[in-house]
Design brief:
The two termini are about 25 Å apart. Strand 1 and strand 2 form a beta hairpin. The chain has helices at about 20-35, 50-55, 60-65, 75-85, 95-110, 120-135, 150-160, 175-185, 200-205, 210-215, 220-225, 230-250; strands spanning about 5-10, 10-15, 40-45, 70, 110-115, 140-145, 165-170, 190-195. The chain has twelve helices and eight strands.
Length: about 250
C-alpha cells in the first residue's frame, strides 16, 4: 500500500489517509495478494476505547502495533491532531463509512468480501443489506462470531477455502486483535483483513448511527451512550478521560 505519512497519537502510529484513498488502498492490496498465499495486509482502527486500553494494557498496545495500518476511527483524535499535530489527520475513517467506499470499488473490480462476527441473525442481515445496496458485490462467505478457541483452526480453513479478497472481522475490541494475533499467519487465502468492531450491528440495522452533525463534532459516543446507557455510559465515562490523557502525554 502507498507509504502514507503518519501521526503519532497516544502511542499509536495513525495513517494519514482519508476514506477514498484508504478504500483504493484496500482494493489494490487485495488484488496484489490474490492467489499468492501470503500473509494478508492487516488494517485496524483506534478510537477512545482503544487509546485508553493501550494506555493501561501493554499487551494490548503490542497487539495494536502489529497491524500494518491504523486508522483514526474517532473524531476527537482528528480534532486533536488538527490543533496540535505537525501533520494533522485529513478526516475520520470510520469503518462504517469505509466499508461503503470499499464496496463501491469492489463491485467494479470483482473484489470479494467475507463477514466474520456478530450473531448469526445480525451477520446474515448485514450481508443481505450490503448485497441490496451493492448488487454486484461478491460475498465469498460469512460466519457468526460465536465460536470457541478450539474451533478457530476449522474457521481459518473455511475462510482460506473461500479465498475472500477482504475479510471484515467484527468480534469487538480486544477479541478481534487477539484472534488475528493467533491466526493471521494462517490466513493465506485472504488479501486484506480489517478489524471492524460493531460494524455488522450498524449494517444490519440493529444499531443506528448518530446524526451527521454529532459525528462531525465528535459526539457520536454521546448518542451511542444515550441509546445503550447500561452497556456504554460507564465505558465512555471512564475511557474518554483516559484517551484524552493518552493523547496529551504521547502524541506528536
Amino acid at each position: 500500500m502507498k507509504d502514507w505519512p503518519t501521526s503519532y497519537l497516544g502511542r499509536l502510529v495513525v495513517v494519514q489517509a482519508g476514506l477514498k484513498d484508504s478504500a483504493r488502498g484496500f482494493v489494490a492490496e487485495a488484488l496484489a495478494r490474490r492467489g499468492r498465499d501470503v500473509t494478508p495486509f492487516y488494517s485496524t482502527s483506534a478510537n477512545g476505547q482503544v487509546l485508553a486500553l493501550c494506555g493501561k494494557d501493554p499487551a494490548f498496545l503490542s497487539l495494536m502495533r502489529k497491524a500494518d495500518q491504523i486508522h483514526a476511527d474517532g473524531m476527537p483524535m482528528v480534532l486533536y491532531s488538527k490543533m496540535f499535530s505537525k501533520v494533522p489527520l485529513p478526516e475520520r475513517v470510520a469503518t462504517t463509512d469505509l466499508v461503503e467506499d470499499v464496496a463501491q470499488l469492489a463491485e467494479q473490480c470483482g473484489v470479494s468480501f467475507y463477514f466474520l462476527g456478530a450473531s448469526e441473525d445480525v451477520n446474515a442481515r448485514a450481508v443481505e443489506a450490503m448485497q441490496k445496496r451493492y448488487p454486484n458485490l461478491v460475498f465469498a462467505g460469512r460466519r457468526n462470531g460465536y465460536f470457541s478457541r478450539d474451533e478457530e483452526d476449522a474457521i481459518v480453513a473455511e475462510i482460506n477455502a473461500a479465498k475472500p479478497d477482504i475479510l471484515w472481522i467484527g468480534l469487538g475490541v480486544p477479541l478481534e486483535q487477539q484472534f488475528l494475533d493467533r491466526n493471521i499467519s494462517k490466513l493465506t487465502g485472504v488479501g486484506v483483513v480489517k478489524t471492524s468492531g460493531g460494524l455488522f450491528d450498524f449494517l444490519s440495522g440493529k444499531n443506528s448511527r448518530a446524526p451527521v452533525w454529532m459525528q462531525k463534532v465528535g459526539l457520536e459516543w454521546l448518542y451511542r451512550a444515550y441509546l445503550e446507557p447500561g452497556r456504554l455510559l460507564m465505558r465512555y465515562v471512564t475511557t474518554n478521560p483516559q484517551a484524552i490523557g493518552a493523547l496529551i502525554r504521547h502524541s506528536s
